[in-house]
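HUMAN: Can I see a protein plus its fold?

ASSISTANT:
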Amino acid sequence: MDFPFNEQTDMLLVLGFCEGNCRESVRVYRERYPNRRIPNHKTFARIEHRLRETGNLKPVRFNAGRPRQARTPIAEEAVLQEVDNNPRISTRRLEHEVRISKSTANRVIRDQLIHPFHVRPVQELLPLDPRSRLNFAEIVMERRVIDNEFHTKILFTDESCFTRRGMTNLHNEHVYADENPHALRSTHFQREFKINVWIGIIANSLIGPYRLPDRLDGPGYLRFLQESLLELLEDVPLNLRQNMFFMHDGAPPHFARAVREYLNEQFADRWIGRGQEAPIQ
């Protein structure tokens, strides 16, 4: 803690009186000024050294960075330029780059009607995926010219694995209380479990859900197609079942050779999947 200039001057006079003995100076200073804060011997040495080196009693402030600047047109332009260069930049990073407070950076951004939209995680698309999706859309449109109800004859299927951890969004999770309840939510467990679930949809009907093996592989998926799928389709009208198209994604178990051979046998040219063997990709 800094001492006023008048107190620092008195410390120097006491230090001179004690002929440079800092510890003795503390004792004498306590006797002369009992109602003041009493400095330790290092304070006497530091003030004496500062005066010799700088000729000034004012402490020298060392700041490794540039001083913060107030909100000026130049600062505002710098903030907007940083946001334009990197739309994902944080206000903490803006504070470091532009040397402006986070609150000021937020106000500059809001005044320009720029809003911080949340990022939504999605599945990665490979380079060939956009073309494949376009091809599939064109095939569907062509078939609908011949059969306007073609899209209702596709059995769309997918699987999802549910775990005990779930998906936690702490951004929107809170507890209202008069005092902080220090609420906790467990996200990591010593005993884990997971459930792999298959479900399908055709026309206006849901097929399933059906629990698959937790670790699904090609043979396991083939057993599902051979033994369980037909039972799940029992409530689907026979005419629709005989003319339906089976669709699944390109997951590794779906691409097993035995699975593709079975689909070619059961659905001929009426299945949709990955690879050159799929009638519709």
User: Anything to note?
Assistant: The two ends are 74 Å apart (CA to CA).
